[in-house]
Design a protein that fits this description.
alpha/beta, seven-stranded parallel β-sheet, 9 helices
Length: 208
Amino acid sequence: KMKPRQALRELFKRQKLLVAPGCFDGLSARLVEESGFEAAYLSGGAVARSMGVPDIGLVTMSEVIERAAQVVSAVRIPVIADADTGYGNAVNLVRAVREFERTGAAAIHIEDQITPKRCGHLDGKEVIPLAEMEKKLAAALASRTDPDFCIIARTDARGVHGFDDAIHRGRAFAKLGVDAVFVEAPQSEKELEKIPRLIPDIPLLVNV
C-alpha cells in the first residue's frame, strides 16, 4: 500500500479537485477519514480556537507539532499541516520542516506573513518582502530529508498589496520548485477563477 506522502503526490497529479476537510485533533481527523475523504487538513486557526485562543500567532511550534503528531497517528490518509510562517526566520523554518517531517505529515504550507502572524482573513496583516520569502522557501526545500514531503508556499499578499502582487508572488514561489501554491483569501469568484490561469502547471490550494 502507498504511504501517505506518496498518496498525496498522486492526488496532486490528478486533474480533479481534492477536498481535504479541516481538523484540529485526532478525533476530528478520524471523522474526516471515516467520512471517506482522501486527505485531511490540520488548520492552524482551528488548532488555536480549540485551545481557546485567537489565531494571531499565540500557538507555539511545539504545540502545533504535538497536535500534528496526534492527528497523523490517528489516520491513514495524508495530512496537510499548517506551519504558519515557520515560526520565525529561515533558520526557524528549517527546524519546523524537520519537526513536521518527523510527525509523519504528508505536507506543510508556509506563508509570507511577518512573525507573529494573524489569521489570513483578519485585517492588519503584514507580509515580508518577496526576496526574504524566497530565501525561506529555498531553505525549507533544502532541509527536507524525504523528497515526498510536500512544501506548499502560501501568500497572504492579496489583502495587503492586492491581487496582482499575490499572483506575482505565487508565480515566483512556483519557479523555486515548491510542490503547490496557496493564494490565501481571494475576494471574489472571479479572482478564484483567475488564479489557476495565472499560476498554471502547479497544484493550487484554496481555503474555503
